[in-house]
Structure formats: structure tokens, C-alpha cells
């Protein structure tokens, strides 16, 4: 277990250091609530913010980052900012244009991580070529994918000059993605969890409740700790300051091997998001 505190990082296969823990802003609309959530997260020690073009909130995230850097006397390079290219923007020219739009909205000179949001058939290889060029030019520090299954990764890597550094996927105790995780580990691709709390559906689970009670922690904290001890980066979403603090307060306890196994045994291969093999947005 390498994550000792909120700002602990893992080295991606190109040497870039990515925080183990961050704030996700999926479905948080532009406006004061979004800006306040991002600023509070940074104030309380978060150093990774994850957004996407399709979330429609890159401008607000950018504003919050600019204000937070000033207010907390931080340098840009102390933050790790991720965004993603939507399926409608996949393809060589399309992705180059989409990246410029994203960077302008965020008001940044570079991105730390840029991901292909979904593996749209026939489109992601052109997008990857664009991302490889942006990476080579130093406009992105690391490039990766999201929601890619093993066969998508194998197909992409057949022609890729640069191997994906990250694969961000739905990952929680009901969807442990064992084979995909093993494949990514074998190829040096860092797995990252979205929807780690299964959109709240796990908070009443008796096994998790029992472990949380024994640890004096919340169920959410137990799940997020399980992510990290499995070597998976995690980015829970919250707009409430108390929850932002609570989610990140997971570095003062450890799950035993038995507890880890009991949580992993909850797997049922159940998704709350779309199946990447039947996704046609």
C-alpha cells in the first residue's frame, strides 16, 4: 500500500506522478456549487480534479482552479487535472479540436491527463493518434482511456506508439473487474475507479456496514480504502464540504486481508453505468 496520505501519488508508466485520490465532478452543473466544491476540495488537501467535456462544467472547474491556486498559494504544477474527449469528438481532427476547446474552457496551458471517454468503434484510433501528438508536444502530461475492455485495449495497442497510462472504469465492490485489472497491471496501465460508491447503492450493505462499524468509519470510507489497497486510483464525487473531508479521511486505518477478501467477494459483475460493449452514444 503506497498511499500514505491525501497527496500520495503513484508513478504512471511514463514517470508522471498521479495522486491516488481526487475529486470527481460528474453531473455537477456549472455554477456556485461546483466552484465551491472544487475550491473546498483543494483547500482541504485534494490535488486531483477529474472532469470531462460531456459534463458541461469545464469552465467552472477552470474558474475554481484559478481561484483556489491564488487563495491557497499553490502552483499550477501542484494540481493534477484530468478531462476526457467525448464520443462525438473522437477522430484525429475532431480530437485535436476538442482538446483545444477543453483547454480553453479550463483556462490551462496543459492537461495532466486526457482520456478517451468511451471506446467508440472505428473512432478511437484516430483520437489516440491525436492524443499521442499532443502528448509529444507537451500539451498533455499523460494520456489514457476510459471504459476500455481488454479487447479494446488490445486493439488500440496494436497500432499505438504510446501505451495508455490510465484506464478509468466503473469499479466498486459489486464490479471488481478482476480480469481487466490483471490485464492492466500486466501492461503497466494504471486502473482508476469511477462511481466507486456505486452511486450510493452500497451504503446499506451488511458486510460493509459491519466492517465500517468495527473500524469506526463510514461505509464510504471503507470502500474508498478498499480501492486504494487494491492499487486502484479513486475519485469520489461530492459537493458537500463535510463529505469531501470525510471521503478523504481514509489514511488513518487499514483493512485486513480478510476484510479485503470479504469486500471483494461482494462482486456480482453489476454495473450502474453503461456496458462499454453496448454503448452507442
TrEMBL record:
It comes from the Bacteria. Pfam families: Aldo_ket_red. CDD domains: AKR_AKR5G1-3 (cd19157). Residues 32-268 form the NADP-dependent oxidoreductase domain. InterPro entries: AKR, AKR5G, Aldo/ket_reductase_CS, NAD(P)_OxRdtase_dom_sf, NADP_OxRdtase_dom. This is Aldo/keto reductase.
Amino acid at each position: 500500500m503506497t498511499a500514505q496520505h491525501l497527496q500520495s501519488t503513484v508513478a504512471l508508466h511514463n514517470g508522471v506522478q498521479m495522486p491516488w485520490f481526487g475529486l470527481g465532478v460528474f453531473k455537477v452543473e456549472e455554477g456556485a456549487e461546483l466552484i465551491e466544491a472544487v475550491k473546498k476540495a483543494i483547500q482541504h488537501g485534494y490535488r486531483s480534479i477529474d472532469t470531462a467535456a460531456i459534463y458541461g462544467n469545464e469552465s467552472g472547474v477552470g474558474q475554481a482552479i484559478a481561484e483556489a491556486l491564488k487563495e491557497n498559494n499553490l502552483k499550477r504544477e501542484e494540481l493534477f487535472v484530468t478531462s476526457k474527449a467525448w464520443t462525438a469528438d473522437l477522430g484525429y481532427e475532431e480530437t485535436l479540436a476538442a482538446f483545444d476547446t477543453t483547454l480553453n474552457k479550463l483556462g490551462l496551458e496543459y492537461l495532466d491527463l486526457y482520456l478517451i471517454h468511451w471506446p467508440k468503434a472505428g473512432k478511437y484510433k484516430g483520437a489516440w493518434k491525436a492524443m499521442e501528438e499532443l502528448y509529444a508536444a507537451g500539451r498533455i502530461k499523460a494520456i489514457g482511456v476510459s471504459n476500455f475492455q481488454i479487447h479494446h485495449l488490445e486493439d488500440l495497442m496494436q497500432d499505438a506508439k504510446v501505451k495508455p497510462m490510465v484506464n478509468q472504469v466503473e469499479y466498486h465492490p459489486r464490479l471488481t473487474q478482476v480480469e481487466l485489472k490483471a490485464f492492466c497491471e500486466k501492461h503497466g496501465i494504471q486502473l482508476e475507479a469511477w462511481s466507486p460508491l456505486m452511486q450510493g447503492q452500497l451504503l446499506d450493505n451488511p458486510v460493509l456496514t459491519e466492517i465500517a462499524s468495527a473500524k469506526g468509519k463510514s461505509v464510504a470510507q471503507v470502500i474508498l480504502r478498499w480501492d486504494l489497497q487494491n492499487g486502484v486510483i479513486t475519485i469520489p464525487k461530492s459537493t458537500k464540504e463535510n463529505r469531501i473531508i470525510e471521503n478523504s479521511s481514509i489514511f488513518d486505518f487499514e483493512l485486513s486481508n480478510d476484510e479485503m477478501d470479504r469486500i471483494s467477494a461482494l462482486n456480482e459483475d453489476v454495473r450502474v453505468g453503461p456496458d462499454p460493449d453496448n454503448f452507442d452514444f
